[in-house]
Amino acid sequence: MLHLLNHPLGAHIMTHLRDRTTKPVTFRTLTYQIGLLLALESTREMQTKEAVIETPLETYRGQVLGDNLVLVPILRAAIGLVQPFTDLFPDVSIGYVGLERDHETAVARNYYCKLPQLAGRNVLIVDPMLATGGSAAQTIRLVQEHGGQNVSIVCVIAAPEGVRAVEALDPKIPIFAAALDRELNSRKYILPGVGDYGDRLYGT
Questions:
Q1: Average pLDDT score over residue span 176-196
Q2: Residue 126: which residues within 8 A CB-CB, separation 6 or more?
Q3: Antiparallel, parallel or unpaired: β 190-191 and 183-184
C-alpha cells in the first residue's frame, strides 16, 4: 500500500530539501511545494458528488468535492504541510495530535490530542518523516479509537522500517510518500534523509 510520487518536480524539490545548506526560509517553501504534490496524490480517490449548475450557455451536471476530508498533522513538524491541503481543500477539517520524540529511546510521548468528527470521513494522518513508524502507529490507534476507519498516511520521506510498522498494524492503510529512503541509523534517523525535519523547518 506504499504510493510514491513519480514526478520530476518532486525529485527536484526533494534534492533541495536534503541539501544541508538549504536555509529554513527556503526549506519552508520547499515543504509547501512537496505538500501540494502529496495533497494531490493522496486525494486521487476522493469521492465527489453531483452538482447541477448553469454555465453562460446551458445547464451542466458536474462534480464537486464532498465534505468528507479530515487532516490530522502530528505536531510539530507536520504543521508545515497543513497549508497546501487547506489551500486546495478549503472545507477540510483539521485535528491535531502532539507527539514528542525522546531522543534517547526514540519513543514518542503523546501530550496533545484534539480531533473533529471522524466517522464516515477520509482521514489523512500527516507527518513529514515515517521513521520507526511509532508515531504513526500511535496516531492511527488514536484516530481509530475516535471512530476513524478510512485512514491514510501522508509523509515526505518513509523508511522501510516505518512502512513495515504501519503494515504490521494494518496492511490496508495506504502510505503516500515523496521518497522511500534506505534505512534508519543507530539514532533512528532516516538515511539519507533530511536530518531533523522540525529543526530544519523552524531553524531550531
A1: 95
A2: 71, 72, 73, 74, 78, 81, 82, 85, 154, 155
A3: antiparallel
pTM for this model (two decimals): 0.92
Q: At what angle do helices 24-42 and 8-18 cross, to 10 degrees?
A: 150
Question: CA-CA distance, 71 to 32, in Å (whole number)?
Answer: 15
Residue 96 structural domain: 2-202
For residue range 154-164, what is the model confidence (pLDDT) as tens digits?
Answer: 999 999 999 99
Question: Quick one: cell of 189?
Answer: 534517523
Summarize pLDDT for 128-185 with one digit per residue, the tens: 999 999 999 999 999 999 999 899 999 999 999 999 999 999 999 999 999 999 999 9
Look at residue 76 in the predicted model and tell me its pLDDT. Answer: 85
* Structural domains of the chain, count: 1
Contacts of 119 (CB under 8 A, 6+ apart): 147, 148, 149
Rg over CA atoms, the chain: 18
> CB-based contacts of 175: which residues, under 8 Å, 6+ apart?
1, 2, 3, 130, 152, 153, 155, 158, 163, 166
CATH number for the domain that contains residue 58: 3.40.50.2020
β partners of residue 61: 52
